[in-house]
Specification:
Oligomer: single chain
Distance between the termini: 29 Å
CATH architecture of the domain at 5-156 and 364-379: 3-Layer(aba) Sandwich
CATH topology of the domain at 5-156 and 364-379: Rossmann fold
Strand content: 15-25%
Strand order of the largest sheet: 13-12-11-7-10-9-8-14
CATH class of the domain at 5-156 and 364-379: Alpha Beta
Bound molecules: nicotinamide-adenine-dinucleotide
Structural class: alpha/beta
CATH superfamily of the domain at 5-156 and 364-379: NAD(P)-binding Rossmann-like Domain
């Protein structure tokens, strides 16, 4: 039997569709009271977009760097500041309904799991978590707490991705035989480091211990971790796969209803003990679905300047590959889905008279607010985003044990025969920062 995301997750889908445990904003005139954790960088735009909903009221902003409140304060003045999300949660108690999590990746699960345990709805940035195990726990906790969730890969709701998904679903290029996805960035391209640099003084504004959170103690160094450049480090981020996998593979997952891969294998350049490889290729094999041809579907990811052979996509002479995106190879044509632009169909002659039915954009942020207020469902909830993130982060497990085909036992969260790889499914938590299994 073909295993689809739907069949694999059937039981927990049913659980998630129950009513939320807490809807303190059920009164049609009341607001959804939200706190933000991580208030600058992507957090600033998350809070701006969520806060543009008429029924959102912010009741707390948390950031470990006091210099990072200035911009959000201009948009939403008078909201209380906090540096430790745990203290904010306990101080506010029942006075908040929902949490926007926009911290660096290594802290997503710590913040979001505690939020959900408290019965709060969660909007959490991509990748949903830093490890495969955490992605599983997030999905289970969301189902158990019956809260409304949304991962922050907002392009999921954009017209460009929705249009590509619809074309594939409509069978415009027939059943899919292979997918190639790429992003040209390098895994340690922001710092170009392969080991921690000499330490430097911690800025007065920054609580470095809280920034580290679940991660082991290490010396602060300017400009290489906070802000933004934590992406390069295995301890905090996920390299190019972590940064872009949940964006670029999202329309692939949605269109084809993918779930857990059967196998994953990676090869790379520049692997070291601290930062992500400069370039890599990750090959997944997924079980076939209603939208694919045959029993299995190969999906290949390329980064660091590696690209799929354009001939694989049968692109016409002079046709450039997008800077980042996917090629869906179908029985009856090829669809290139750029990240982020309208899909293109090939061969050009075959589709010259074909009019692409552009799908409207949805408001990714407001959809979550509406779900929390009204009990409706989001399309990018943790039931969907959990398995997508698991698959993305399995790529990062494979890249640490290169040139080996790993079989994935999704139900058991194991890589049979490869304890060396299995240890990368989860991380060590600093004492006092452990995340409890659901
Ligand atoms: N969806 C997208 O298009 C998109 C784009 C960029 C970033 N992101 C994601 O957003 C998240 C943040 O990325 P960024 O580029 O904004 O990083 P950043 O380092 O620039 O900003 C993170 C913010 O969180 C704060 N912070 C760090 N640890 C914290 C903690 N424990 N508690 C409270 N605040 C904390 C920082 O001080 C900073 O203000 C990441 O998960 C990233 O992958 C998503």
């Amino acid at each position: 039997m073909k295993t689809t995301r739907r069949t694999f997750l059937k039981s927990s889908v049913a659980a998630t569709l129950g009513f939320p445990a807490i809807l303190s904003a059920q009164n049609p005139n009341s607001n959804l009271q939200i706190v933000g954790v991580g208030c600058d960088g992507k957090g600033l735009s998350d809070l701006k977009e969520v806060g543009s909903h008429a029924r959102v009221k912010y009741v707390g902003f948390c950031d470990v760097d006091s210099n990072r409140f200035a911009k959000i304060d201009q948009l939403f003045p008078g909201v209380g500041h906090h540096s430790d999300f745990r203290e904010m949660f306990s101080k506010l108690g029942k006075a908040f309904d929902a949490v926007v999590v926009s911290t660096p990746d290594h802290m997503h699960a710590a913040v979001a799991m505690e939020s959900m345990r408290l019965g709060k709805h969660v909007y959490c940035q991509k990748p949903l978590t830093h490890t495969v195990w955490e992605a599983r726990q997030m999905r289970l906790q969301a189902a158990q707490s019956r809260v409304r969730t949304q991962m922050g890969n907002q392009i999921h709701s954009a017209s460009e991705y929705r249009t590509g998904v619809k074309l594939i679903r409509d069978g415009v290029i027939g059943k899919i035989t292979a997918v190639h996805s790429w992003q040209r960035n390098s895994g340690n391209g922001y710092t170009k480091l392969t080991s921690p640099p000499p330490s430097g003084p911690v800025p007065d504004s920054l609580n470095w211990d809280l920034w580290l959170g679940v991660a082991a103690q290490r010396e602060y160094a300017p400009k290489v971790y906070h802000p933004f450049n934590w992406r390069d480090w295995q301890e905090f981020g996920g390299g190019t796969m972590g940064d872009f996998g949940c964006h670029i593979l999202d329309p692939v997952f949605t269109a084809l209803e993918l779930g857990s891969p059967l196998t994953v294998r990676a090869e790379n350049e520049g692997l070291n003990a601290h930062t992500w490889p400069t370039a890599e290729t990750v090959q997944y094999v997924f079980p076939g679905t209603a939208y694919t041809k045959g029993q299995t579907l190969p999906v290949t990811w390329y980064d660091g300047g590696r690209l799929p052979d354009r001939l694989l996509g049968q692109l016409p002479p002079g046709q450039e590959l997008a800077r980042a995106g996917s090629l869906f190879i179908g029985e009856g044509g090829v669809l290139m889905q750029p990240h982020v632009a309208m899909p293109q169909l090939f061969p050009v002659e075959k589709f010259s008279g074909f009019s692409i039915d552009k799908q409207p954009a949805l408001n990714h942020y407001h959809a979550w607010v509406e779900a929390a207020l009204n009990g409706t469902e989001t399309t990018d909830n943790f039931e969907y985003a959990g398995p997508l993130t698991e698959a993305v982060l399995l790529g990062n497990v494979a890249t640490r044990i290169p040139n080996v085909t790993l079989s994935w036992n999704a139900a058991a969260l194991s890589l049979p025969g490869h304890p060396d790889a299995e240890r990368f499914l989860r991380r060590n938590y600093r004492e006092g920062w452990e995340i409890k299994a659901v």
